[in-house]
Design brief:
Length: 204
């Protein structure tokens, strides 16, 4: 029996030594040999710094949760719209303005170009996140030309076809987005934007 216990203890000790390895300290990046499994730092000083950072990380997470709890539905709509508009601008960066046909440039006077909606957010809020209804548009056309609805329609027909445009024009389905849906929309378009930027970076 004693031999069995000694063998078991020896096996566990050998396994522990096998799992202990040399790794980089997560704080100073110096290499060290672990004294125990899951050890991430090389010294007490780095351990104290690691604890401080983890504590601050936890506090930031709690702070974000508190702020999220205070957000109104209107706040979530703005956040989702910002993410959606940013994606549309990135998607259409190499296309001409949907209205006037001029190139869309980030250096345009006023700071780039807009995500312009064919059916406006005010008159058709249920289409505010419809990608067919949103396209890159110069600030001049979007903000100072009342959206240039006729020119927008012609440009949209050329881009997605008359049938698709008529579907948009006929869509009167009411939609009240829940906070959960708005959170998902924001996350979706942030992810789509990140993917698009990654693809562009790979090309360049």
């Amino acid at each position: 029996m004693g031999n069995v216990l000694n063998l078991t203890t020896l096996t566990r000790s050998t396994a522990l030594r096998t799992t202990l390895r040399e790794r980089k300290c997560v704080i100073c990046a110096e290499k060290f040999k672990q004294a125990r499994t899951m050890q991430k730092v090389c010294s007490p000083a780095c351990g104290a710094e690691y604890s401080r950072r983890e504590r601050e990380k936890k506090e930031r997470k709690q702070d974000r949760a508190r702020k999220a709890a205070l957000k109104t539905r209107s706040d979530w709509i703005k956040g989702a719209q910002h993410a959606f508009n940013a994606y549309i601008r990135a998607r259409d960066r190499n296309l001409p303005c949907i209205c006037c046909g001029k190139p869309l440039k980030d250096s345009d006077t006023g700071g780039g170009f807009d995500c312009g909606h064919y059916r406006s957010v005010g008159s058709a809020p249920h289409l505010r996140f419809d990608e067919r209804n949103a396209n890159g548009q110069t600030k001049q056309c979007n903000r100072y030309g009342s959206g240039r609805a006729v020119d927008y329609r012609l440009g949209l027909i050329a881009r997605i076809g008359l049938a698709a445009v008529e579907v948009l024009e006929a869509d009167q389905t009411p939609k009240r987005y829940t906070i959960s849906e708005l959170q998902q929309i924001k996350a979706t378009y942030k992810a789509k934007l990140a993917k698009l930027r990654k693809e562009v970076a790979c090309i360049t």
